[in-house]
Write a structure and sequence with these properties.
Length: 140
């Protein structure tokens, strides 16, 4: 099946939503081939692991076929996707960095992005403050 999937562009900073061919992997989890191994070793082919929440699809990372065949991997992926909204909100509350893709997914789901955007801004502010302090120490 094909679906529009939120993922990062190759620059790592831009969220795009191309249509991707998906194959079922676990409950509300799909795989999409990212790149084939250049030497033909299928175990080293790389796949996007795609979560589905309601009608929104997003890449949660890229993994090799070898890793995805691992024991318990399917259930772990299903649990990750099932708990993704709550885990993302908890991460924002803790002051962890919130990925831009998380903000885009919340928007697409019609959820309030305010806590995520605030957490991103606060994290950036703290990092910038640390950089300034480090520069001041180096200047002394």
């Amino acid at each position: 099946m094909k679906a529009k999937v939120f993922k990062y562009k190759s620059d790592g900073n831009t969220v795009v939503a191309p249509y991707m061919e998906l194959e079922p992997y676990a409950e509300n989890v799909y795989l999409s081939l990212s790149r084939k191994n250049e030497y033909g070793n299928e175990d080293d082919d790389c796949f996007h692991v795609v979560c589905r929440i309601e009608n929104v699809y997003f890449s949660s990372g890229q993994y090799s076929r070898r890793f995805l065949k691992g024991e318990g991997c399917r259930e772990e992926a299903a649990t990750y996707c099932r708990n993704w909204i709550a885990d993302t909100l908890q991460s924002a509350e803790r002051g962890a960095f919130v990925n831009l893709i998380s903000v885009r997914v919340f928007e697409a789901l019609g959820l309030d992005t305010t806590p995520l955007v605030q957490a991103r801004e606060e994290y950036k502010r703290i990092q910038e403050q640390k950089r300034r302090e480090q520069k001041e120490k180096e200047a002394e």
